[in-house]
Amino acid sequence: MSATQVPGASGIIQNEALLWEKGKKGRRGMCVPASDVPEATLPAELQGQGIDFPDLSEVDVVRHYTRLSQWNYGVDTGMYPLGSCTMKYNPKINEKVAATPELAAAHPMLADELVQGNLRVMYELQESLAAITGLPGVTVQPAAGAHGELTGMLIFAAYHKSRNSLRNKILIPDTAHGTNPASAALCGYKPVPIKSGPNGIIDVQSIAAVMDEETAGIMITNPNTLGLFETNIREIAELVHAKGGLVYGDGANMNAVMGIINARSCGVDVLHLNLHKTFSTPHGGGGPGAGPVCVTEELTKYLPAPRATKVANGYLLDYGGSESIGRVHAFHGNFSVLLRAYSYIRTMGARNLKKASQLAVLNAAYIKEKLKDTLPLAYNRPCMHECVFSDAWLQEDKISTLDLAKRLIDCGYHPPTIYFPLVVHGAIMIEPTETECKADIDQFIEVVQMIVREAKENPELLRQAPQRAKMRRLDETLAARHPCLCGS
Amino acid sequence: MRYLPHTDDEIQEMLAVVGRKSLDELFCSVPDACRFVGDMDLPPSMDEWQLTDHVGQLAAAMQVNHTYKVLIGAGSYHHHIPETIRTIMSRSEFLTAYTPYQPEMAQGTLQGIFEYQTLTSRLLGMDVTNASIYDGASALAEGLLMGLRIAKKKVRVAVSAAVHPHYREVARAYLSPTCYEMVELPVGPDGRTDLSGLAGLGELAAVAIQSPNFFGVVEDLTGLGKTIHAAGALFITAFTEPLAYGLLKNPGDCGADIVCGEGQSFGLSRSFGGAALGMFACRDEFVRNMPGRLVGKTQDLDGKRGFVLTLSTREQHIRREKATSNICSNQGICTLIAAMYMASLGGSGLSELARLNYSKAEYLKAQFRAKGAKIVFDSPTFNEFVVEFQEDFRPAYHRLLAKKIVAGLDLGRYYPEHAGRYLFCATETASKEVLDAVAGEVRS
Q1: Which of A75, A108, A369, B317 could link B273 by a cystine bridge, Cβ 3.0 to 4.6 Å?
Q2: Which residues of A touch B432 (CB under 8 A)?
Q3: Measured between beta carbons, which residues in chain B are less than 8 angstroms from residue A406?
Q4: d(Cα B41, Cα A110) in Å, to the nearest integer?
Q5: Nearest neighbour of B109 by CB, restricted to A228, A285, A366
Q6: Is residue A121 exposed (0-12), middle (13-18) or buried (19+ Cβ within 10 Å)?
Q7: What is the predicted pLDDT for the residue at A8?
């Protein structure tokens, strides 16, 4: 494949000003109803000066955002092999379900008997997530994965406090998600970093050496951020439990192991799920997501309130007892995301969820096998849903991981996750997900191979990339040195 | 299964490449003791037609649906959403994009967020707005934690009892495992926060006031701010109804240091409380203590204007333990929707709509007063207020429910001392006819 034949091409990219550089005073882009009541006057001292927003017509607004959208790449545009982020296709029917007028218009403070449909969705989703993880207590309130982590740490703290156990440390392997230490630190815990072993997973001895009765527990991402299964998780859990600690499972990578592992059997006490990754929700350029937390029977009483429960004649919100950690969201979490996950689980069923995990792992294993002679593997072990390469061979040609990533943009692909996990030098982390077909994966592999050849034959092509995107390489250092966060 | 593209032949070809005989063999690194036994206990899978029928049943189980007039605000408001927003936000280039880590192919999202930051800063009168937090409640909790970070050694924060009760619960949960203390400030008989006890509180990092507050009352933010600053604390303001600032003096002009609130009013459906939009702004000097993501202006190699995520040293992917917060995903598409809504209304439209909301609520107040009901707090309000009826209101509430009107929220669950008093909200969506119908059921 030559450089001019690569897939992807520039579309029609039109210039577009910033919102406030357009418009004319007095234009209006939406209807404000005519008033049918007398105009009331507010005391002058409370009145503001008026808002300095541009006035735009409907066509101004529609054209502005349509043009902006054309500068963007989404998973509907093409492959998005972002490791650790899980960007898979989002079924369109879920959007329709989430927008069901009866469900979407519901005010969150209506009495339970008035909103039975929504409560049933919450209850049945809780039950499904319990069935998938093997952990019976579920809250759907957290609004994102990291919010679920925080909720989990609040549960750790409440549990230890109830036992009058003063614990101030938490063990966090270097292959855990980046948000784990911050979530623990927010709860006043001191994160203790644990180095993974030479095979990319945690070894039992390293935990035995540090686990003590001042340690609240451990946060394990499994499969970890190298895409490897933490094979020793049960032994590690036994060690932690023996010293009175708890095991947190970061379940952000659950899409690799649905129907394959049982979190309870792994020794996990608290686990969060990223509904938006595993059970599909469009990421919307940064969210919203949803991060339900699943816990053992013993820890259920600490979950945030309220939770939906089933009673003889319908569904109720149960506000729990005094041991609940309280609320982590103003209302019931990101309900529209819960609806999408509910819809996804109901259309997939147990068999297809397991199949999705199997195919996600197959796709990653296939890429790993096909690219291992092109880029050096970080760890040559059976991978789960993602595989990680390093930049060692690129460096020989003074090419960085970033250069490779930017060249992929010219070829019509969103680059994989780069420079993460931190334990791998110049990491390139590829997660194809189960929704990419073999032909698309083969084409991606071919493009990566071509770019690595280009690195030797025409390295400037990589250093100058991207050249076919809306912008050439953007200066991130300038943005950080001279922050301009608000337009004028 | 239509979301899984692999044919059996392709699976076999790929298994051969990776040297495995079966899909099960791919999981050879999972010990037997960790494995799921049997099948996951889930309902059988549905096709698209079955799912549509099933969702129809769920919809039918909603006694109060979209055809009802719900005169409740209390943190979630019913406003008209222009059709343009549904159309533009559903463009898959916005909806199916990820966090814009590769700015060259995410300029749409990045410029969109930069514009959201700018419009929100102008609305609130603040220097900097971030790219959102989960909701108004978590924004307040993060605001208090930020106040504690800025104040360094101080250990106490104070929050008005007129802040949304759920927001206070969330803040309490966030602070519970820490060494910090949260105290509540009383509300006076005028429905406004009483700061007379502030002087007695030492080690005070920040004070949070909501305006309009949970009772709908507009607080004297300027006056409160002066007292709070005089006590050496940071002044945090919260809101649940951003539309109010189309009419009221904004928090920045009242001296706020950090502003946190809920942006659902700006083009998002109520959706049972989520997806929501935590709006979060502060003064320039505090930006490095701010949680969440930020988009900044920069240029590309040719000097062309462009946008990137910036100041990421505050975030958890670099100095993991030292991050200012753990926020990673936020409410990306919701920020774009709010920006689309603000752009659609414009400055003139926002003022007009805010005034209309104010007039509707004042009209309903007048109708209630005419029926002999008491407006509990006589301070100014925006689009919601608390009313006390001469007789038990419950029979009237149920008569109105039968007419597809949800008439207010009984405050007893949130403030036992206000049991039997109702918080009413009237936005532009409530016609005079509906407001008259409500007043018509009140016995004088």
Answers
A1: A108
A2: 36-37
A3: 102, 104
A4: 32
A5: A285
A6: buried
A7: 55
Is residue A226 over pLDDT 70?
A: yes
Structure-block tokens of residue B349: 């439209």
Structure tokens, A234:
């049960």
Quote the CA–CA distance of A388 and A368 in Å, as a whole number: 8
- Residue range A374-401: average pLDDT? 95
Given the DSSP bridges, would you call strands B204-210 and B156-160 parallel, antiparallel or unpaired?
parallel
| Residue A324 DSSP label | S
SS3 (DSSP) at A245: coil
Of B26, B176, B352, the CB nearest to A325: B176
Q: Which residues lie closer than 8 Å to B333 by C-beta, 6 or more apart? A: A282, A284, A285, A286, A287, A288, B89, B94, B95, B275
pLDDT digits (tens, 9 = 90+) for B65-96: 999 999 999 999 999 999 999 999 999 999 99
- Asked if A346 and B54 come within 8 Å (Cβ–Cβ), the reply is yes
Tell me the two tokens of residue B267: 């083009």
**Inter-axis angle of helices B332-370 and B107-124, to 10 degrees?**
30
Q: Residue A288: is the preceding peptide bond cis (ω within 30°)?
A: yes
How large is the C-alpha radius of gyration of chain B?
A: 25
CB–CB of B1 and A348 under 8 A?
yes
Q: Give dist(CA A340, CA A288) in Å, integer.
A: 12
Tens digit of each residue's pLDDT (9 = 90 or more) over B120-150? 999 999 999 999 999 999 999 999 999 999 9
Find residues 290-349 of chain A whose CB sits inside 8 Å of chain B.
Answer: 304, 325-337, 343, 345-349
* Residue A151, CB-side half-sphere exposure with 13 Å CA sphere: 37
DSSP sequence for B56-104: HHHHHT-SS-TTSEE---TT-------HHHHHHHT-HHHHT--S-SSGG
β-pairing, B405-406 vs B69-70, is parallel
The structure tokens 């319908």 sit at A314
At residue A264, does pLDDT exceed 60?
Answer: yes
Cα–Cα distance between A290 and A279 in angstroms, integer?
A: 10
Contact assessment for residue B383 and residue B213, using Cβ atoms and an 8 Å cutoff: no
